[in-house]
Amino acid sequence: MQPLRIALAQTAPQLGALEANLERHRALLAEARAGGAGLVVFPELGLTGYLLQDLAAEVAMRLDDPRLATLAAETVGLSAVVSFVEESADHRLFIAAALLEDGAVHHVHRKVFLPTYGLFDERRFFAAGSLIRAVPSRLGVGVGLAVCEDFWHLAVPQLLALDGAQVLINVSSSPGRDVAAINEFGLGTATSWRTLMRAYAQMTTSYVVFVNRVGVDESISFWGGSEVIGPAGDTRFGAPLYDEGLYLVDVDLADLRRERIATPLLRDERPEIVLRQLERIVRERAGEVRDTTAEPGAEPGLDVAPAAGSAPLVRR
What we know:
Blueprint: E1 4-10, H1 18-34, E2 39-41, H2 56-59, H3 66-72, E3 79-87, E4 93-101, E5 104-110, E6 134-136, E7 142-147, H4 155-162, E8 165-172, H5 188-204, E9 207-212, E10 214-217, E11 220-223, E12 227-229, E13 235-238, E14 245-251, H6 254-262, H7 271-285
Parallel strand pairs: 1-2, 2-3, 7-8, 8-9
Antiparallel strand pairs: 1-14, 3-4, 4-5, 6-7, 9-12, 10-11, 12-13
């Protein structure tokens, strides 16, 4: 299997400037192609900027938008992951990542987990995706796409790997938080992300490609630090914090075979056990069966019993 050159496009998108960001993507695709890249990865909402709020509808594109088709046309003989606001036929807005290959939109992932805590307010403006799927690619390996917060939920990388992904790609707009000298990289966010990436790569014996944006939206700054992690959890490349750039990384896809044979963690997974236990947990939470962790006397679907002598709960 031939080595793969990956281009990490650690960009600083212009907020709400779809046309300018499209032009920047086209220029970087040409630069990556000239550099021999087979895969180019852009950050979350790289075509629009992150802190859109009420601008989201103005920059949204349907999958049949000619502007997306024109961008896809730049990927003949190339694979690229781009991210944008997708508008569905029924006018829901999603944070989407698309795999563009050989001049076409090959696969689209809609962000499943929308953070709405701290400085995040995504659920107010966007709908949540409901599918987690790997897809074959022209690279000769299965690819799994995820968007930022998706990787803060354990099931996402596991499901992608079990579904056939050997390269897990996470595109992100992660703001810099928790600046302190006690953190490994002087930035708590970077330390947390790097811990996650290494764990997921090693546990799924997959390559993990993480591309985070830089720059500022309003008062929020983004830290970059894009990475490629090998299937044994080893760092193959780490981009600098805060610096915009196109970074080229060569990886040997044959390492996937060696690692999966030597450490057959995916082979030994038992998804049927996980499925049975999840079905039990969902039924218990819905009150359909007795909750094995609930206190005696708790109402169906609840796990705490009322205090002695209190009036019975009225279910609505």
